[in-house]
Structures are given as structure tokens and as C-alpha cells.
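Practice set, problem 2.
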Amino acid sequence: MNPSDKYRSVMPAFYACYDEAGEISISRTKALARFLCAQGVAGLYVGGSSGECIYLSPEEREKTLEAVVEEVGEELIIIAHVACNNTRDSIRLS
């Protein structure tokens, strides 16, 4: 198998999940990751394509990514978006 073939499949952008107070919800994040995994996706693109890179702090992005990896990281390809509007935060996330 060509190494790049593993990226030729469905890998949706992952949306941040919030609780009633507007904070990142670890339980809801894990539930969404598990749901998408059960739908047969090959991987998840976390923290970027759906706008999180602009609207979430680095800490919130880390929490989301950590929850996704903890829940489905052994089963799915996880692509972490690390770009920020400043170099320091991009380095931190990478």
C-alpha cells in the first residue's frame, strides 16, 4: 500500500463542542468523536477547517484535540491543525 493512500478517505473537520456555560465540553467532544468513528470515517481533522483556529484559544484547542485523541486516537487518523495568527501559539500547538 502506498503510504499516502491512508489519506484518501473521508476525514471530516471536527467541530468544537460546548457545555451550557460556553466552555469546551470534554464529554460532548468525546461523544461526537465516537459518533463519527461509528459512521465509518477514516480520520478527523481537529482544530482548523471549521473555524476553531480563529475562535478558540490555544488551551481550548488543546483540550479538544486531547479529548479526541483519548477517545478515538487508536482507531482513526487524527490530523491536528496547528496554525495560529502568531508564531508562538503555532509552535505551542505543534
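Problem 2, part (b): a different protein.
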Amino acid sequence: PSVLASTQAGGGGRRHWVSVDTRASARGGVAALIAAGHRRIRVVSGAFAASDRARQRFDGYRDAMRAHGLAPAPALCL
């Protein structure tokens, strides 16, 4: 037996799969930092052009910052 771990649904068939909502995960992580009193939060990321997941994580960060009335900083892309 095997399990496919991916950021997208594994499709039909008999394969078992686990999907991760990358944007929601980042949003939740940033919200937890904000709840702990942190306000100066920044994303260090890989290049957005090379990874759709990097962009999704940044979008989740931006969502959380804005939801809490904080200005999101630009990503530091390496």
C-alpha cells in the first residue's frame, strides 16, 4: 500500500491520498504568530516562478496579515 501526499487531490481510483491546503496552512501559522503577539512577520521563500506552493504560502501570509489589520511585507525570495 502507498499514500500520495500532495498539494492537489490524488484523483480517482484505488490510490489513497492526502492533500494539503498550502494557503490555509500558511494563513493559520501566521495567525498563530499574531495571536502570540508578533507583528513584524516576513516570508522567506523560494522563487514564485519556480514554485506554485511558494506563491500559495505567501498568499496565505498576506491573507492573515490583512485580516489582522497588519501590512504584509514583500517576500524575501532566494
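Answer key, part (b): The beta strands are 3-6, 16-19, 44-45, 76-77. The helical segments are 22-35, 52-67.
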